[in-house]
């Protein structure tokens, strides 16, 4: 698994707590996607399981380390939803709990990694809570999440909360440049800001095909604003990754509000300033705010409503947006 320089400090801090006998048996790591928390948790797991630790490092040579490197350590458990499912039910938690109360097969620590704690159903969370309240000896639970408020309060209270913040922008820009990603420094800055400063997420966005998809959406929006035919945006939005594409759209609208307030330095889309200016000129602050709310509601429906007709929902929202422009005094092209 890859390692990233911004993880050095949190790794030393967390492993230092365990080395000093102050480590918590249940760690809840809160991180934005793309900050590499899986690498951090794996490294901590290796240290906890290692039989011949070298200070803050795992030795890499003992039997437990070799099993971890091979991905076959019997006392290292990953608790995640089955492929294709978005929730983790109670049965896997019960089965794991029974396993944990048996002796460690390698005679050392037992480690459980829960990559997406939000996937736990309420019943599964309550079952895990019982194990956290009375954990087996030498057993450690490492949970990661995107939004702690989506977890049961009782579950959060049994864990040590740790926020893995994004690295400083300047350091992330240096790292992206060292990776040899395509794009200018302005592109890199935009990609970082669109992902709360998370370098790995920015790197994925900067891949040529993905970056072109975003550029095409921005170009379509500029053209739609000029013609006031917002349905031109439908081919750019109507994709399986619609949630991220709507994130790009909402970020542009939010940037337009910042522009109106003289806060251009805080614009996320640094590479799309002419488009941001155009949005700021075409819509009032209240209209921009209402647009953001409507698009976020649309995004929520697309993510949460089972069997929703994506094309129909997007079409309805785009037509509603057209009406907003018409009400603001801009003529629809078909009425000319």
From TrEMBL:
Could you state one GO biological process linked to this protein?
A: DNA-templated DNA replication
Query: What keywords appear on the UniProt entry?
Result: DNA replication, DNA-directed DNA polymerase, Nucleotidyltransferase, Transferase
Q: Name one GO cellular component term.
A: DNA polymerase III complex
EC code(s) of this entry? 2.7.7.7
Q: Which reaction does it catalyse?
A: DNA(n) + a 2'-deoxyribonucleoside 5'-triphosphate = DNA(n+1) + diphosphate
Record-annotated DNA polymerase III subunit delta' AAA+ ATPase lid domain positions:
167-207
Q: Entry's InterPro entries?
A: DNA_pol3_clamp-load_cplx_C, DNA_pol_HolB, DNA_pol_III_delta_C, DNA_Rep/Repair_Clamp_Loader, HolB_lid-gammaproteobact, P-loop_NTPase
- Transferase: present as a keyword of the record? yes
MF terms in GO: 3'-5' exonuclease activity; DNA binding; DNA-directed DNA polymerase activity
Domain of life of the native organism = Bacteria
Domain (DNA polymerase III delta subunit C-terminal): give its ranges.
209-323
Q: What is this protein called?
A: DNA polymerase III subunit delta'
Q: Which species expresses this protein natively? A: Serratia rubidaea (Serratia marinorubra)
The record's gene field reads holB
């Amino acid at each position: 698994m890859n390692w990233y320089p911004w993880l050095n400090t949190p790794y030393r801090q967390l492993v230092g707590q365990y080395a000093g006998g102050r480590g918590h048996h249940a760690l809840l790591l809160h991180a934005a996607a793309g900050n590499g928390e899986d690498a951090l948790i794996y490294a901590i797991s290796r240290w906890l399981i290692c039989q011949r630790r070298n200070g803050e490092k795992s030795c890499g040579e003992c039997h437990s380390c070799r099993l971890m490197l091979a991905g076959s350590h019997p006392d290292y458990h990953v608790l995640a939803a089955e492929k294709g499912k978005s929730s983790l039910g109670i049965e896997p938690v019960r089965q794991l709990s029974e396993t944990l109360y048996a002796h460690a097969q390698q005679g050392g620590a037992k480690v459980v990694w829960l990559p997406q704690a939000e996937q736990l159903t309420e019943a599964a969370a309550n079952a895990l809570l019982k194990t956290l309240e009375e954990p087996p000896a030498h057993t450690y639970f490492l949970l990661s999440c995107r939004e702690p408020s989506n977890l049961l309060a009782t579950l959060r209270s049994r864990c040590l909360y740790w926020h893995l913040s994004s690295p400083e922008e300047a350091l992330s820009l240096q790292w992206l440049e060292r990776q040899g990603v395509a794009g200018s420094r302005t592109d890199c800055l935009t990609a970082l800001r669109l992902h709360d400063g998370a370098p790995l997420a920015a790197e994925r966005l900067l891949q040529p095909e993905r970056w072109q998809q975003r550029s095409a959406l921005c170009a379509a929006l500029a053209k739609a604003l000029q013609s006031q035919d917002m349905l031109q945006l439908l081919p750019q939005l109507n994709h399986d990754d619609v949630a991220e594409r709507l994130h790009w759209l909402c970020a542009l609208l939010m940037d337009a509000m910042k522009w109106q307030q003289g806060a251009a330095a805080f614009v996320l889309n640094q590479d799309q300033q002419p488009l941001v200016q155009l949005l700021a000129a075409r819509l009032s602050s209240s209209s921009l705010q209402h647009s953001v709310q409507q698009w976020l509601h649309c995004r929520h429906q697309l993510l949460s409503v089972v069997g929703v007709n994506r094309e129909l929902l997007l079409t309805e929202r785009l037509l509603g947006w057209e009406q907003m422009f018409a009400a603001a005094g801009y003529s629809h092209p078909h009425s000319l």
